[in-house]
Automatic annotation (TrEMBL):
<dbReference type="InterPro" id="IPR009078">
    <property type="entry name" value="Ferritin-like_SF"/>
</dbReference>
<keyword id="KW-0560">Oxidoreductase</keyword>
<comment type="subunit">
    <text>Homodimer.</text>
</comment>
<comment type="similarity">
    <text>Belongs to the fatty acid desaturase type 2 family.</text>
</comment>
<feature type="binding site">
    <location>
        <position position="107"/>
    </location>
    <ligand>
        <name>Fe cation 1</name>
    </ligand>
</feature>
<keyword id="KW-0444">Lipid biosynthesis</keyword>
<protein>
    <submittedName>
        <fullName>Acyl-ACP desaturase</fullName>
        <ecNumber>1.14.19.-</ecNumber>
    </submittedName>
</protein>
<dbReference type="GO" id="GO:0045300">
    <property type="term" value="F:stearoyl-[ACP] desaturase activity"/>
</dbReference>
<feature type="binding site">
    <location>
        <position position="199"/>
    </location>
    <ligand>
        <name>Fe cation 1</name>
    </ligand>
</feature>
<dbReference type="InterPro" id="IPR012348">
    <property type="entry name" value="RNR-like"/>
</dbReference>
<feature type="binding site">
    <location>
        <position position="202"/>
    </location>
    <ligand>
        <name>Fe cation 2</name>
    </ligand>
</feature>
<feature type="binding site">
    <location>
        <position position="76"/>
    </location>
    <ligand>
        <name>Fe cation 1</name>
    </ligand>
</feature>
<keyword id="KW-0408">Iron</keyword>
<feature type="binding site">
    <location>
        <position position="199"/>
    </location>
    <ligand>
        <name>Fe cation 2</name>
    </ligand>
</feature>
<keyword id="KW-0443">Lipid metabolism</keyword>
<keyword id="KW-0479">Metal-binding</keyword>
<keyword id="KW-0276">Fatty acid metabolism</keyword>
Length: 336
């Protein structure tokens, strides 16, 4: 099809693909219960019920793990905004509606499990968590809400939604999995492995719909792909102090520019055969060429980050050595 299709036409054309994806999802997904992944025996009352409020010394997680867990949970907490976005761009009848509701229910399960784990184990400040949750949800979310194209906020289309969420779900899967490893704690690792498995299935669903979209309307799909990747940000960018948190997470190896390029962007572009197809014409062909330039730009960003990270780690190592030497001197002075 060469003519531009409306979102209503695309919804109709892609409905068989959605139904197939739904059937596949239900056949391979594994139901699980959040309460099975929470060490309830570690829990105790907080002050309001005669217990003890949170103290930083109670957390067994590293700074990187704490920030990554907090960022992951606050991202999941903004689920009402995500549900609204996909419900507005899809429709609630037939397999599309079935998927929207199922996806929402599974994503909500992630937030329930993460919060229960963090509050029961006292891994992070629950008061700060609640304060940030309220602010984050109040800010809402839209993939295009902070991105301008030709001086105007772009109007999202069906392709914008499914292509954006393909990359986002894959990135979220990787972030959850690496956060579990960073926690260096068995229960957290198992929980986040379970969550990341769900995110992987979600990614496959959206990836396959997008792939079908490239077959039905390649130029339209390319237009959305170019817009999404040129303006891509994770949904957690609305979380207060996102940039500071993102730097800590990147330096800690949970999610950095190299991971984004090698494990998220390139695998999806290869799956869709973006640089091998010959059915892009006009502006879409130029956009495909610009994506090749974007990949080069991302490579340069990876190299720059690697240098900056090394310098940062060296500075921190020198600080640690000076502190250790100072403490040793104090101890020696005290002993004498």
């Amino acid at each position: 099809m060469s003519e531009k299709l409306s979102d209503l036409q695309l919804l109709h054309e892609l409905e068989p693909v959605v139904e197939k994806g739904l059937n596949r999802h239900f056949s391979v997904c594994k139901d699980w219960n959040p309460h099975d992944y929470i060490p309830w025996s570690d829990g105790k009352n907080y002050y309001a019920l005669g217990g003890q409020d949170w103290d930083p010394e109670q957390s067994k997680l590293s700074e990187v793990a704490q920030i990554a867990m907090l960022q992951n949970l606050l991202t999941e907490d903004n689920l009402p905004s995500y549900h609204r976005e996909i419900a507005m761009n899809f429709h609630m009848d037939g397999p599309w509606g079935t998927w929207v509701n199922r996806w929402t229910a599974e994503e909500n399960r992630h937030g329930i499990a993460l919060r229960d784990y963090l509050v029961v184990t006292r891994a992070i400040d629950p008061v700060e968590l609640e304060t940030l949750r309220l602010e984050t949800v109040n800010r809402g979310f839209s993939p295009g809400q902070n991105h301008q194209v030709k001086d105007e906020l772009f109007a999202e289309s069906l392709f914008d939604s499914v292509i954006y969420v393909t990359f986002q779900e894959l990135a979220t899967r990787i972030s959850h999995r690496n956060t579990g490893k960073a926690c260096d704690e068995t229960v957290a690792d198992k929980l986040l492995a379970r969550v990341s498995a769900d995110e992987n299935l979600h990614m496959i669903f959206y990836r396959d719909i997008s792939e079908a979209g490239f077959e039905i309307a390649p130029n339209q799909a390319m237009n959305s792909l170019h817009r999404v990747l040129r303006n891509f940000q994770m949904p957690g960018f609305v979380v207060p102090e996102f940039r500071r948190k993102a730097v800590t997470i990147a330096v800690g190896g949970v999610y950095d520019p190299r991971i984004h390029l090698d494990d998220v962007v390139m695998p999806v572009l290869k799956k869709w055969r973006i640089f091998d197809r010959d059915d892009f014409t006009g502006e879409a062909a130029r956009q495909r060429d610009d994506l090749a330039l974007l990949v080069e730009e991302l490579e340069e960003a990876c190299d720059k980050f690697a240098v900056s990270k090394q310098r940062y780690l060296q500075r921190e190592a020198r600080k640690a050595e000076k502190l250790a030497a100072r403490n040793k001197k104090v101890l020696a002075s005290s002993a004498s």
